[in-house]
Design goal:
It is a single chain. The strands form 3 sheets. Strands 2, 5, 8, 10, 11, 13 and 14 form a 7-stranded mixed beta sheet that branches. A 5-stranded mixed beta sheet has the order 6-4-1-3-7. The chain is elongated, with a radius of gyration of 36 Å. It folds into 2 domains: about 80 residues, Beta Complex (RNA Polymerase Alpha Subunit, Chain A, domain 2); about 90 residues, RNA Polymerase Alpha Subunit, Chain A, domain 2 (Beta Complex). The N and C termini lie far apart (about 135 Å). It is mainly β.
Length: about 220
């Protein structure tokens, strides 16, 4: 047995040395394939494509997190080269769950969150309403409104149907002066609900109206 171990002992020791060196190389040297790539992560806004101009999409997920595999040493990826879109082509009013599509030419997408978005589509409608003056300030001041004129007298509202249904009136705010005087200014009209609060997401045309008012002396207290 001892003779067999001593036979070609030099070759056996050399083979052992090669085996140890190979193990050490594989164990301690980083994997060149893994080291050659890394993951870059972006947060990009979610936008819609293919939606008719007469519709509006509502959704709560405004951004998508996209992870992209990239070769080390390569040119950095610009955030504006990556887009997250919802394809709404051919869809009408209703509620949908739409997959998020990532547009990133020649880039390898590793992960995406969220993968889909639940949204509702509403029709955008128009309505014309008369504009009413709304006086703001202390009503106990000794002035009365002798004349008021709003031009134009009607405003056009454009908004998704659910927002437009909340509009009860269109007003222009006219400040009450402390003393008899005149008021002549361009004032922004406001689409308001039944409580007088402004309804958001309603486009009012024109966006400025000319308001002219004359305030005279009121009855004085005795």
């Amino acid at each position: 047995m001892l003779d067999r171990l001593r036979h070609n002992l030099g070759l056996k020791l050399l083979a052992l040395a090669f085996a140890v060196a190979a193990w050490a190389y594989l164990r301690l040297t980083p994997n060149p394939i893994i080291a050659a790539r890394f993951t870059q992560q972006f947060s990009v806004p979610i936008s819609t494509i293919g939606l008719s101009p007469d519709y509006m999409a509502r959704y709560t997920d405004k951004d998508a997190v996209v992870a992209i595999d990239q070769a080390r040493g390569g040119a950095p990826i610009k955030p504006d080269a990556v887009r997250a879109v919802l394809d709404l082509n051919g869809r009408g009013p209703g509620v949908y769950n739409v997959p998020v599509e990532v547009i990133a030419p020649k880039l390898e997408i590793k992960s995406l969150s969220p993968a889909s978005v639940t949204l509702s589509i509403e029709r955008i409608e128009e309505r014309s309403l008369a504009v009413a003056p709304h006086y703001v300030g202390d009503p106990r001041k000794n002035v009365v409104v002798e004349h008021v004129d709003v031009q134009p007298q009607y405003a056009t509202l454009r908004a998704p149907s659910s927002d437009l249904d909340r509009v009860a009136s269109v007003r222009v705010d006219v400040p009450l002066p402390s003393n008899p005087s005149t008021f002549d200014a361009m004032v922004r009209p406001v689409a308001a609900d039944q409580q007088g609060a402004e309804v958001q997401n309603v486009a009012v045309t024109p966006n400025l109206l000319r308001v002219r008012a004359t305030f005279g002396p009121g009855a004085r207290e005795r």
